[in-house]
Amino acid sequence: MPPAQQRKPTIILAAAFLTLFINGGARHAIGLTLRPMVEDLGWLRSDLGSAVAIFQVFTAFAMFLSGRAIDALSPRTVLCGGLLLCGLAIGAMSFVTQPWQVLVLFGVLYAIGNGVSGVVPVAVMVSRAYPAGAGAASGIGISGMSAGQFFIIGALSYALATTGWRDVFLWAGAAHLLALPVLFWAIPGGGDTAIKVGAAAIGLTMRDAMRTRRFWILTGVYAVCGFDDFFVTTHVVAFALDSGLKPVVAGNLLAIMGVTGLIGVIAAGYWGDRSGPAPATIAAFAARTAVFALVYMDQSPLSATIFALVFGLTFLMTAPLTVLFVRNAFGIAHLGAIAGLVTMVHHIFGGIGAWLGAAVFDRTGHYDAAFAIACLGSLLALVLTMMMPAKNPAVA
């Protein structure tokens, strides 16, 4: 193995892609299996919706802690440790018989592993390896989530159709464990100087950042983004089935959303490097507002398909832009910690979105009220993004 300090940025980028390919693809297994699990075990959708809500909270705090950890520890320790916990926890989901077991395995253990090996440490690692093109490089790395959503969910959809929902979780766990040896070699250890922050790094502390108006505008935007993201990814397959799409088509719809997401996240990264992070974010929330309004008014199979594909295009657009927003506004000295805090808010509100969608459906038999809330929230995020200054002169 080459010395750590000789690790090429391209290897770091490939490791980031593969990490999020596994991490981002497997986490959607709960959305893929929501309806068959409920029907097989005699549960309510809110039983799994509650597990996803708890998942979001624990993932959120794990992302915040991983952001701080990546400022101090080696990426290999942080990312491989998280992936190992993910593989063991989601694999054990194949044996659940009671809702509380899902809460522990998926809502707590898998959530912690998923957050520790998630977007925040990966994006920080990549942005330090590519300081001149952080948006584009982060977009390519984070596009692994979309590619994983397409290929892994596509494969798991086949397993669901042929052998049942329990094998979906078994194969998801195996994917994590099989990837670990490659990632352990490829992810930099503690001696890689390409990803260290210099002693003269400029930027606000997390406490000082939280005293600024722009921090609260930014967290408001990401709160709405998280609500939208996990409401949709948790319920889109069930919604598509409710709208009349066939099970195989509905399952693959989530995978196809990964393809449109791949386009969106890479485009957002390049766009962010050239024009700043705000324009791509504005475009994402404008599109979301439109498609949420569409499915609120019309829930035919065609509208459900259009909704899924357009929303999929926006799903990860804000992910590579997080480090750009934080770097422009608060500097790089505490990039991991502040980006982790913003992402924590994103995921906490994601849990609220996943739970609220289930609660609305169990109470009313449809998702109309949840679509209306998401539409108004997206409009609010659009306005907030337009209010955000491009740069902070103190750290530009």
Question: Can you describe this structure?
Answer:
It is a single chain. Helix content is 79%, strand content 0%. The protein is built from 17 helices and no strands. The protein has a single domain (7-387), classed as Up-down Bundle (Growth Hormone, Chain: A), CATH 1.20.1250. Residues 1-5 and 193-200 have low confidence and may be disordered. It is globular and about 55 Å long. The chain has helices spanning 9-26, 29-32, 34-41, 45-70, 75-92, 99-116, 119-129, 134-163, 165-186, 206-209, 213-242, 247-275, 277-297, 301-314, 321-330, 335-364, 368-387. With 396 residues, the chain is mainly alpha-helical.
Strand content: under 5%
How large is the radius of gyration? 20 Å
CATH architecture: Up-down Bundle
Distance between the termini: 38 Å
CATH level 1 class label: Mainly Alpha
Topology, number of strands = 0
| Apparent shape | globular
Task: Compute the number of helices.
Answer: 17
Which structural category do the helix and sheet elements fall into?
Answer: mainly alpha
Low-confidence parts, pLDDT < 50 over ≥5 residues?
1-5, 193-200
Q: By CATH's scheme, which homologous superfamily applies?
A: MFS general substrate transporter like domains
Order of helices and strands: HHHHHHHHHHHHHHHHH
CATH fold-level assignment: Growth Hormone, Chain: A
The total tally of domains equals 1
Helix content: over 70%
Largest sheet: none
